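User: Reviewer 2 asked us to show a designed sequence for the structure in our supplementary figure. I'm pasting the structure tokens here. Could you produce the per-position amino acids so we can include them in the response letter?
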């Protein structure tokens, strides 16, 4: 199987298919695996229209979005269930090493003040947690991250902990992986954990959607 990892906008697929090469009346089914970092349903809502657009614009091709959790990407790739993947750079590097994947484009993340091709991670807690003001305060506490392969929702924070001499697996009383960025935010909000980490812009997007208030949180 030829897997192309799309760390990018799916519109670039227009540059990589040639409808003229298809026999008349035939149709190719293109399965695009998308990292569902905020859940499968939201992933389909966000990317489904793109698949519909590509199917309309490229004769002979039908595009389908396959939402994948962090722990589902490698198995789906191994089984040959996807032709393209939209994922974070850390997952891409892993797929490149395991399966010889190739990156073909980079996603531009649109915000109100412009577009960005980079992102980071934030470690945060509730705004009213007066006992937590720096990373060292999290020792022996509880902590939520997205997934072990989440770049903005775990790996970036792990690097910062390491730089401060903290080993989350050893020093935290409870280290859990919630599966989505939203789940991490709610775990912190609902006092399920002392702190958590998500990729940059997650809190801002959730406030715009009306599901949280930024004033209820503080970045450490």
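Assistant: Here is a per-position design you can include in the supplement:
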């Amino acid at each position: 199987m030829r897997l192309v990892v799309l760390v990018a906008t799916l519109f670039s697929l227009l540059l990589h298919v040639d409808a003229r090469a298809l026999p008349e009346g035939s149709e190719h089914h293109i399965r695009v695996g998308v990292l569902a970092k905020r859940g499968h349903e939201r992933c389909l809502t966000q990317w489904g229209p793109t698949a519909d657009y590509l199917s309309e614009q490229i004769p002979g091709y039908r595009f389908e979005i396959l939402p994948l959790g962090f722990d589902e990407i490698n198995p789906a790739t191994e089984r040959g269930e996807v032709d393209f993947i939209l994922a974070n750079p850390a997952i891409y590097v892993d797929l490149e090493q395991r399966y010889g994947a190739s990156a073909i484009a980079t996603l531009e993340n649109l915000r109100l003040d412009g577009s960005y091709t980079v992102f980071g991670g934030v470690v945060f807690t509730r705004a009213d947690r007066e006992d937590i003001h720096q990373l060292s305060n999290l020792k022996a506490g509880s902590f939520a991250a997205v997934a072990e392969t989440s770049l903005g929702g775990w790996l970036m924070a792990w690097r910062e902990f390491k730089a401060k001499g903290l080993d989350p697996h050893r020093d935290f009383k409870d280290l859990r992986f919630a599966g989505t960025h939203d789940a991490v935010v709610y775990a912190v909000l609902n006092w399920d954990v002392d702190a958590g980490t998500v990729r940059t812009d997650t809190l801002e997007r959730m406030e715009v959607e009306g599901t949280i208030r930024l004033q209820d949180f503080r970045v450490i």
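For the response letter, you might also mention the following. Helices lie at 40-57, 73-78, 89-99, 151-163, 168-171, 181-189, 202-208. The mean pLDDT is 86.
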